[in-house]
Specification:
CATH architecture of the largest domain: Alpha-Beta Barrel
Order of helices and strands: HEHEHEHEHEHEEHEHEHEHEEHEEEEEEH
Radius of gyration: 24 Å
Helix content: 25-40%
EC number: 4.1.1.20
Domain Orn/DAP/Arg decarboxylase 2 N-terminal: 24-266
Number of strands: 18
Keywords: Amino-acid biosynthesis, Decarboxylase, Lyase, Lysine biosynthesis, Pyridoxal phosphate
Number of helices: 12
Oligomer: single chain
Number of domains: 2
Binding site for pyridoxal 5'-phosphate: 218, 356
Distance between the termini: 80 Å
Structural class: alpha/beta
Shape: globular
Strand content: 15-25%
Protein name: Diaminopimelate decarboxylase
CATH class of the largest domain: Alpha Beta
CATH superfamily of the largest domain: Alanine racemase
Length: 411
Amino acid sequence: MLENQLLKIAQDFGSPVYVYDAEKIESQYKRLTNAFKSVKSLKINYAVKALSNISILKLFNTLGSGIDTVSIQEVQLGLAAGFQPKQIIFTPNGVSLSEIEEAAKLGVEINIDNLSILEQFGTKHPNTPVCIRINPHVMAGGNANISVGHIDSKFGISIHQIPHILRIVENTKMRINGIHMHTGSDILDIEVFLYASEILFETAKQFKNLDFIDFGSGFKVPYKPGDIETNIEELGEKLSAKFNAFCKEYGKDLTLAFEPGKFLVSESGSFLTKVNAIKQTTSTVFAQVDSGFNHLIRPMFYGSHHEIINISNPKGRERFYTVVGYICETDTFGNNRRINEINEGDILQFKNAGAYCFSMASNYNSRFRPAEVLWYKDKAHLIRKRETFDDIINNQIEVDFSPKKNKELVK
């Protein structure tokens, strides 16, 4: 999107505000499907947790995508967005058996990563097909908090516990129709991904009635000019060849599935904030904006990088600023960044704000969550209203602390 379009959105809808470019979402989806075009059956399940606005889900539905969900609420949101149950896979962690049963009752694909839950579910519902999430014990991902396939991870059933899985399947007579893994996010080295895929192929050989193999996702996107990203085209070529060879050995054409979130929506998103004040200290020039980690926690939580552009003065002289928010704790978005000269009232654009930004926003400090806008077919569409004070107190229940009058007569 052009800077003048973003400035107009900030003017029309106020700040802070999230803006998503539908064209970028569509191009990323097509890029991924083109990379694996040599596979006979490919299934992309968009990871709802990255950005769960119902209009975004409806956009993915028009592209032919399925969705990956991690809570019963995301399943219900997917159904409300028009997805058929068979287009939805439910991949929770640490949820109750009753929540899994509730999802299964809705007819969605179930993915289980716990031996105990697998046995309980298989005993009660042997006729419901189940996918199993495997932990390949492969360390991958750009941060410890987003590396989920290593030996100490809470996710997945260890590859060393395959005999336990097979015993449960034999005892319950349940059907396993899919095998799944997810090693982590921001994967740089595709060789690590390919190595983990070999583990998954060997595991899949243990199950004779599979319909699909799900390789998760974790593809890295660029966060700044010249940044390293996952080479999707190379991965597509190499993994497709391995997958097609496996299907031939397996004796059946399976579906190759992925569940990307960040790859599809991260670069589409911009977060626009207004500069409240410029504060000069003895060592630093702070640009203080009308937001904080209540709206964009990733830099503080993951140490993630978001490029910050002064779209009000794109050709101004560059100076160094530390961009901070208005929260009562440290909420530094960018430290000592070279940015075109900032004045109070300028609009700053935070890039890569499409994934895990609004979806992780909160009402901390009793601040309102921002509006969301979708730029679709050269027009700005409001897809979520900015919250109001009524939203803050809507579900709160006030206790009556007024003194009670004594109704007894005083003699």
